[in-house]
Structures are given as structure tokens and as C-alpha cells.
Automatic annotation (TrEMBL):
Protein name, as recorded: ATG1-like MIT domain-containing protein
Name of a matching Pfam family: ATG1-like_MIT2
Residue ranges constituting the ATG1-like MIT domain according to the UniProt record: 4-74
Organism: Caenorhabditis briggsae
Lineage start: Eukaryota, Metazoa, Ecdysozoa, Nematoda, Chromadorea
Amino acid sequence: MAVISAERIMYRHAIELCQAAALDELFGNPHLCSQRYQTAYMMLHTLAEQVNCDQDKTVLTRYKVAVEKRLRILERQGFVAAVNT
């Protein structure tokens, strides 16, 4: 039986949230994606703070920065009230 850690579940969920948010943007529903991006950002941030492996931390931080960029774009377009880092 495979052991799946809470961190792996969080990571997968964060990626799924980002994918769903990107699809919302792609299909013209940017007002629906901000909550997904914000939740994914928080999850990626939490994981990046807890991880011990430098390579994992680098990947998580890179994804977190990408999500933050999307949130900033949505903020400029008026779909996100504020982005706190």
C-alpha cells in the first residue's frame, strides 16, 4: 500500500487549483479564478516554508512566484482586490 503524505496531497491540490484557475482565465471567467489562485498560493507558500530539501524548496518557490504573478495581473485587471505577500 502506497503511503501518501499530507504534503503531497496539498501539493497536488495546489497544482489542480492552478490548473482550474488557468482554465477559468482561458475561457473568459477571470472573476472565478482569484480564489483558486489565492488558495494555491497559500498552500505553496506553506509547503515551501516546511520543506527540508533545497531542490523541493526551489520548485515550490518558483511555482509560488508564478501564481503571485497571475494574481498581480488579475489585480491590475480589477478581479482581485489586493495581493499580500
